[in-house]
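Q&A log
Question type: sequence-to-structure
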Amino acid sequence: MTKLSPPGIKHLIAVGSGKGGVGKTTSAVHLALAFQARGLKVGLFDADIYGPNVPLLLGIRQKREKSQVYAPILRTGSPKAYIKPLTRFGLKIMSIGLLVGENQSINPITDAVGQLVLQTIHDVLWGDLDVLLIDLPPSAGEPQNSLLKRLRFDGIIIVTTPQDMSLLDAGRSLRFFQEGGAPVLGVIENMSYFVCPSCAEKHEVFPRSKRYQNELLNQVNILGQIPLNPAAAQKITKHHPLVKRNAADSYAAEYLAIADRVYSAVKS
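Response status: OK
Response body:
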């Protein structure tokens, strides 16, 4: 089966994780903003059909009645895109969460999940973009499997935290993407440490797994280690990501450095 890229997209990159709660979507949002801060044209697609949180993090709300719920139509030939993405902080944004009501659930049959996400990606009027980031659901399965079969990815980024369970599941995701033929660019270690505001000392809040840390990270690059940062959490709560509000902050600077490493890798 021939793998394709959406028209006008130079580089297609996915952000995934082995489990939920590791800050994958937060990382995807900040990475997208870091690319945009470097002068790139960037889109962000939220592919988490069951828990789409990109709109929440960016302060985007869209109410829809049941009669307005989007349903992708399987169209033959080469159908034209028709959905206009929203723009926030200079990013082109689309999410399943924008196509249904906030309080509505989506419960498609398993085989239809991949097709729903694929069709939506192709139905969006992205225009010309340097990077389209896809924020995947946690773990493996659908829609990841369908996306790997049908789309040509320039790279996959895996987000994890330092603990045993997170690293173990991140390793499983790593193997899943490798077996699917997608290039894994590396790992973002989120909540890696905490810098005390009083003494400026670095503290590792979570117990660091030596076994799974070595097993996973010996295979791939560490793209960056993101600290626990109360200011970042407060800005996200207020829908003003720190990368956009204060690029000089060390938290924002780390994502800018990651963006540089990632873009250098996909261009080479």
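Response note: The longest helix spans residues 250-267.
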